[in-house]
Specification:
Rossmann fold; 2 domains; 34% helix; single chain; alpha/beta; 11 strands; Hypothetical Protein, Haloacid Dehalogenase-like Hydrolase, Chain: A, domain 2
Length: 255
């Protein structure tokens, strides 16, 4: 039996893996995930807030309620965990303090200036967003149109430069690149590896029983931390929606 078939839980990144950045889950992906939930436990981890999960993912997941008991959500890069039992319940939440948030906001202001960030004429939504357990910078704003986001930093170089400077100011925090235009900051050690480890502990699973699918497994990407857990990983292209659908279909055929 292959690692894909033997995995008891499949963990997916959200943006650029299950859907494009902040774009609602499409009907085909919804159907595939619904079928997968019949045979496997599934977790979804993202830098997105829980509210964004609701808007982008849960609202468009057409799935029998009993199957949702096999689904786990990890918003803000694993700083929170949610499970379903008649309704969604938060298992834990690693919230940033107000002092920590101020430190992060101040560091962003300095790093953006030093990193040569050029503020666009129009900001869509919020530039630096307080997500309770995470502070996130979005290069064009939190609600920027997808087409503009794709063009802003396709090779990650703008964000890599800013993130490198940011880490000098934020030794006591975790800094990662995610989505199409984002840089995420959480408490030190709070990243996707932390979230997946908490899921394994909560469900009493071993690393060989978990498999991760994501698009940002490169060094500095917000998926890369999961490699340290020794779990099987599957890298998809950016955006990896087509790759992810093919992967799920293969799992369903081999069930």
């Amino acid at each position: 039996m292959s690692p894909m078939e033997s995995a008891l839980i499949i963990v997916f990144d959200l943006d650029q893996t299950l859907s494009e950045s902040k774009v609602p889950l499409d009907g085909e992906m919804s159907s595939l995930l619904s079928e997968l939930l019949r045979i496997k436990k599934v977790a979804v981890v993202s830098g997105a807030s829980y509210e964004q999960f609701e808007k982008q993912f849960l609202k468009h997941l057409i799935c029998p309620p009993e199957m949702l008991k096999n689904l786990y959500l990890l918003p803000t890069n694993g700083a929170s965990l949610y499970e379903y039992n008649d309704n969604w319940r938060r298992v834990y939440h690693q919230e940033l303090t107000e002092d920590e948030k101020k430190t992060i906001f101040d560091a962003f202001e300095k790093s953006l200036a030093e990193g040569g960030y050029q503020k666009p004429d129009k900001i869509y939504g919020v530039l630096i967003e307080d997500r309770s357990a995470e502070v996130t910078f979005s290069g064009l704003g939190s609600d920027a149109p997808l087409l503009l986001k794709k063009e802003w930093d396709p090779d990650f170089k703008k964000r890599e430069k800013i993130a490198e400077i940011l880490r000098r100011y934020l030794h006591s925090f975790s800094v990662s690149i995610g989505g199409a235009t984002s840089i995420d900051v959480t408490k030190k050690g709070i990243d996707k590896a932390y979230g997946l480890k908490k899921v394994m502990e909560y469900l009493n699973l071993k690393p060989e029983q978990m498999l991760f699918v994501g698009d940002a497994l490169f060094s500095g990407g917000n998926d890369a931390s999961v490699i340290s857990l020794g779990i099987k990983v599957v890298s998809v292209s950016d955006p990896g929606i087509g790759d992810t659908k093919r992967f799920i279909r293969k799992l369903l055929v081999n069930k």
